[in-house]
Amino acid sequence: MPKDWTVSPTGTVIEATHKLSTPYVFLRFAKVLRRRCIQFVSNRVSYEREAITKSLHTGTRLNLSNTWRFDTRTLMADSAGHTKTDSTGKKTPKMTPMLEQYQRIKSQYPDAILFYRMGDFYEMFFEDALEAAPLLEVQLTARDKNAENPIPMCGIPHHAAQSYIQKLLAHGKKIAICEQLESPTAGKGVVKRDVIRVVTPALVGDPEIVAEESRHLLVALHETDTKTMEACCLDLFSGDVLLGETRDVQRLEDTLLQWDPKEFLIAPEIRENAWFQRLHKYFGTAAFTERRDYFAKDGAHGAVLRYIQETQKVKGLDYLKEPAALFSSSGMALDSTTISTLEIFKTGKGSWEGPTLFNVLNFTQTPMGRRLLKEWLAAPLFEKNSVEARLDAVDAFIFFRHRF
Description:
By secondary structure, this protein is α/β, with parallel strands linked by helices. It has helices at residues 22-58, 97-106, 126-136, 161-170, 249-259, 274-282, 299-312, 336-341, 357-361, 367-378, 384-399; strands at residues 5-7, 13-16, 113-118, 121-125, 141-143, 151-157, 175-180, 193-199, 217-223, 229-235, 240-246, 263-266, 287-290, 324-325.
């Protein structure tokens, strides 16, 4: 402390007879700021640890931040069931045979949330539980609550799985359905389980989950050696397959806009292309699935077929139709600006409800009819003969409506 300072009996500086030098003040301020920052970070980490531990022990819901995650790779026990330690030297939970089975199955589907069947429930553990609980709006609890490191878990009734699957699909998630393949028998050991199918935003597999007004389409995108963009579009329910290639990025974007895909299948290296980055920005709400070696043999079409076999656990694909032309010349390609300006599907405020062209014209009676009307409006006819043929068909239905 400078000698010219006047100090009170309690040690408080009450007067300084000369000004302190700027470097000295800055140094003191930096030291205090550093000490306060360290204290704040330490308190924050302690608070988050305490909150998460309390949540898992009490079963209360917790809005977890991205700063805290369970790394399931460090939670694996050895084959003898002994606990191990993670990189910090902290002991990890002991794995039961059931959890070892869960981890083994989960490792085969790292990009999906595993619905693990246990009796009348589908259970989720570790990272899947932390991710799914807030999306499904179910309680996050823990297995072995009294253990040093309780295992986060959550569950849903298997008979209500469809509604929960819809919630996850709405967030672009995939769900691996793991069923019991044998009846539980006392003393027999762990029940045999395996994944029977993977539900993705495009490959739903259940008609009751599909939105009425739209198809759930999968599009595989591939860039050939000649820098041509190849696309394969699949509708799993109808079996329709559309295939085409082009060098015109705008044409590709306009065509995909008509179909509004729910999921894209790509090779990782395609992400570096400028045209793909534009597509990704426009279709940001869709799911993007990467498969490195699926395109090597048969391009986009082969990748789609292989992906179906992987997720739906089927060998034969006879129900799929022969590929048709993706880039059809029979309909007009409307760009995103035109569709938005004319309020064909959404209002000017971005709402699906309201006086849009689709809502005004939509007197269809079936989900298939609604989807077809949507496709017609997205790609209106421009050839005279085609327009007149469609009008004649509509007139016939109206004239003979009493027969239907």
